[in-house]
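1st attempt posting a full record on here, be nice pls
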Amino acid sequence: MKTALSKPSVSRQQKNLNYFKRYWTLYLLLLLPITYFIIFKYIPMTYIQIAFKKYSIIQSPWEMPWAANNGFEYFIKAFANRDFLYALRNTLMLNLLDLVCGFPAPILLALLLNELPFKRYKRITQTIAYMPHFLSWIIISGLALQLFAPTDGLVNILLNRMGFAPIPFLNDPAHWVWTYILLGIWQSVGWNTIIYLAALTAINPELYEAASIDGAGRMRKIWHITLPGLRPTIITLLILSLGRILGSEFDRPYALKNSLVNSVSNVISIFVYDYGIKGLQFSLTTAVGLFQSAISVIFLFGANSLAKKFGERGIW
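the predicted structure (as tokens):
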């Protein structure tokens, strides 16, 4: 009886042993990225506790005293800080506009490039479109200043010669917001288009041939074949974009901002820089960063759950 029961376990152990003998090189290759994440991602997470403690440069995070209000002193201070509330509002506003205006742009560009019959023209257009992705925001801000400066910018010079009043692209808060969004779309649209063009190659060309036989036009093919084929990719990237809805890059708003548009250009990353790096309030800015990350994770899980409810796979 014991021998009969031990045979399956022995065969299972042998099967696992054979599996690892066959694929041990793959697991060996995994050691490098796993080590990277442990050293540079997970170990630094221990410093999250600074958000709940009174920071001291001469003490380790484990030795620092706990902050008042059961450790939530700096979270309360953050939400009582008017600059943080403005930064939170600006971050949400700019990211939502980026999502509404910028997310459909690479989809539309991919659809247009996919319909081009001339392959050489398509490649040239695609190359020109994604080249701005390799420019830093310092360079882009310099270009924007040369183009959109209120008095000596090229665009306003042309408007002035045509008899129109100059437009304060970089000096008026409302105009600055739309300049910020359009520059972001211009910088990222070509690079993101590559993802959708790669997804388009997975669509079976026989579907288009069958649609042509049935008399479907170009728009019908896009609506009933191309867009459904892109839907899994669109959903996945939308979930990831919603996960970054409260995140804020530093270089883009910092390079484009000026004192005249501080009311809309100061985002959370700039708040953290001003109060953390300049002001040395590390506990406060750590609390802000932890709040920012927690809300982003909630948005990520929420968007993924909604995607699954509508029949999509989600990202996990």
